[in-house]
Amino acid sequence: MSTSSQGVSRRSFGKLAATAAVAAVGGTTLGACSTRGGTASPDAPLRVTAINHVWSHAIADRLEEIEDRIKRRVSISMLTADQLTSSYNVKLNASATDVDVMMVRALQEQLLFAHNGWLVDLTDRVEGDAGYRWSDFQQAPRERSAVDGSVLSVPVVTERPALYYRRDLVEDFGGPPGTLDELRELSLELADRRDNFFGFVGRGQRNGAVSQWSSFLYSFGGDFVVDGRSALATPEAIAAYEYYGRLLHETGPPGATNMSLEQAMPIFAQGKAAFYVDADAIYTNFLDPGVSTVQDLVGFAPFPAGPAGARPHNIPSWSLGINEFSLLRDDAWEFLRWASGPEMVAALQAEGIPGARESAWSDSETLGSFPAELAETMRISAERGVGTDRPQVLQVARARDIVGRPLVAGILGESVPGVARDADAEFAEFLVRDNRYREG
């Protein structure tokens, strides 16, 4: 139907979701906006601004359903992550009414948008609509959809970490590691770096590694912030920093501190590492013979348990909100209700797009498109999951940069505690300056 598309072409779910997973929004607080006003023309389209993602394409293919329901044309603009950020900054600063439905990252930009008053409060709609079944959404993504008790978005795509491993290499050890201690031991045992084979590969770039390292932090019993204060120098956080740094320093590839997803993923895909921890959404890269040499050897396992148990993140990587300045709020809500309703989530998850509803995850038919071992891994991680993979602040990019400093030190083989204490002091000062904590 009526779809306007910009940005990169459609690619596999793994590659698109990986882009969504690692893209970062600049955290600059922008100016306040004026109150909306006016009415929409009867023939005005409902305008949806979305990331160029497999979810967006799947929804675009079904637009006729919602157009028949709201008796209005729907136009979707699909942008790259950078284009999306730029578009929102320009349009929302200008109180623009030509965006109705917004695809947003609840963990990256929602807090900033809430601070600036750019998202409609959806609380009464989601909680007052029995057919929508708000309680059916997984707890962790549902909690991340709210700011100060107000629901500002609804999750449509979720993501967790998975332990990717080589089946052929772990057979003699009784299968994949179930604990972080076992992961380190096996990584050291299997690494042969003189022959360019690595025990473990993962993100090591200062800013980009933070989201995947979060699961290690939680599983060591730590967190980014505790009671509004920096927790980067707690014994638990330092232990998590040292563990991850040592794992890459002793068993990982050279140059790991320069590696984001785009550099780390191909190392495992080309058969150069025994273990890899990253987003479950990128699994198709390892099953594609055009990308991977291990498609018949790759296995999938839940995130290993640390001293505090297995505590991976389970996040809403992409959500839908309504522009505060939209003149079509009711129609926009009908779009959200349709696009994130139980039937749609089940249908899209059956096509390999992981949603956020408990009912979909408990239905074996919706998991049939995933490899059975991966489906079970995703289900377990969703049950255990923590709803965030980065600090919940206004200036997320800056926070990640501070948090990543001790990670880099550990990967380089340097002493971590001193760097962690310095980062803790810097982060504590940052939290005082960050409007989220000053106002809280």
Estimate the mean pLDDT confidence.
Answer: 90
Distance between the termini: 45 Å
Please indicate the percent range of residues in DSSP E strands (runs of 2 or more).
Answer: 5-15%
For the record, the CATH architecture of the largest domain stands as 3-Layer(aba) Sandwich
Alpha-beta classification? alpha/beta
Text of the CATH class of the largest domain: Alpha Beta
User: Judging from the principal axes of the Cα atoms, what is the shape?
Assistant: globular
Pfam families: SBP_bac_1
InterPro entries: Bact_solute-bd_prot1 (IPR050490), SBP (IPR006059), TAT_signal (IPR006311)
Protein name: Carbohydrate ABC transporter substrate-binding protein, CUT1 family
Organism: Streptomyces zhaozhouensis
Short structural description:
With 440 residues, this protein is α/β, with parallel strands linked by helices.
List the helices and strands and how they pair.
Blueprint: H1 13-22, E1 46-51, H2 54-60, H3 63-70, E2 74-79, H4 81-93, E3 101-104, H5 110-115, H6 123-128, H7 139-144, E4 146-147, E5 150-151, E6 154-159, E7 161-166, H8 167-170, H9 180-190, E8 198-201, H10 210-219, E9 225-226, E10 229-230, H11 235-251, H12 261-269, E11 273-279, E12 298-301, E13 315-322, H13 329-339, H14 342-349, H15 358-361, H16 372-384, H17 396-403, H18 405-411, H19 416-433, H20 435-439
Parallel strand pairs: 1-2, 1-3, 8-11
Antiparallel strand pairs: 3-13, 4-5, 6-13, 7-11, 7-12, 9-10
Helix pairs in contact: 10-11, 11-18, 18-19
